């Protein structure tokens, strides 16, 4: 079989080498398309491949149409909102992710973001400490749980809201389950977002929630830009000059936000949550192994488009 690793934002070399080794050992051919500059390049590259590994690369209906032999797509990472599941499912193409493999890197970035904003983006002036502050975690999944554990080690009080996780599980971890999202926003100095981008969550973080935060509150986004209602975020930051916003996925209106709110906002130049050698290796090798296993045994454990 032919496996294409298509990454506009390439994996670390060690990850690519390991992925090649895993696939080639199992008798597969590996091709690499990195830093491609237009979607057409991906459409062309998938024409005769059997398996595709991507990161946040957009796997559109055009890509699927062009990929006549495609049997499996693995998103080396957690969120698969970049893949058109309908087009894949209609063609019987299996789509998988590699849950948990890059979570620690994202969680470490969330902690770094809290400190960065508390210290005035490392510019002169008096900052504040995160010890003793309250952190609210929106969605207690792989990343949320890791952020909670690290924040507790740093002396923070941690609360979480997740309708899919039991209160007992949170309590076992020493995390206070929020009775409602509103309660969490009202009580927490920091809110860290870990929800996926789905039709239900798109633009779900808006003015009413953000402005519930206490004085000096800071919203952290290492999830997806689509979950933010940007117009309402701008209004919240305008009406509440004490609030802050830091994101790993620049808003469409980031230039305006930067200009209008200066030190109170920050966006990384390119999504860097999973940009560690460790995360690349974990997610990349998992993706390659899942493909090898799928072709060898039919294992679909991590399939996200099961009927
Ligand atoms: C994920 O969903 O796994 C993260 O957002 C990382 O995305 P990336 O592989 O594009 O860095």
Could you list some keywords that capture this structure?
single chain; 307 residues; alpha/beta; Rossmann fold; 7-stranded parallel sheet; 5-stranded parallel sheet; 38% helix; binds 3-phosphoglyceric acid
Could you give the topology of this structure?
Elements: E1 2-7, H1 13-25, E2 29-34, H2 39-45, E3 51-54, H3 61-66, E4 72-75, H4 85-90, E5 94-97, H5 103-118, E6 134-138, H6 142-153, E7 157-161, H7 167-172, E8 176-177, H8 181-187, E9 190-193, H9 207-210, E10 218-221, H10 230-239, E11 244-247, H11 254-261, E12 265-267, H12 277-297
Parallel strand pairs: 1-2, 1-3, 3-4, 4-5, 6-7, 6-9, 7-8, 9-10, 10-11, 11-12
Bound molecules: 3-phosphoglyceric acid.
Question: Could you walk me through the main structural features you see in this protein, from its secondary elements to its overall organization?
Answer:
- The chain folds into 2 domains: 2-101 and 275-297, Rossmann fold (3-Layer(aba) Sandwich), CATH 3.40.50.720; 103-267, Rossmann fold.
- 38% of the residues lie in helices and 17% in strands.
- It has helices spanning 13-25, 39-45, 61-66, 85-90, 103-118, 142-153, 167-172, 181-187, 207-210, 230-239, 254-261, 277-297; strands at 2-7, 29-34, 51-54, 72-75, 94-97, 134-138, 157-161, 176-177, 190-193, 218-221, 244-247, 265-267.
- Helix 1 links the parallel strand 1 and strand 2 (29-34).
- 3-phosphoglyceric acid binds at residues 9, 55-56, 77-79, 102, 271, 273-274.
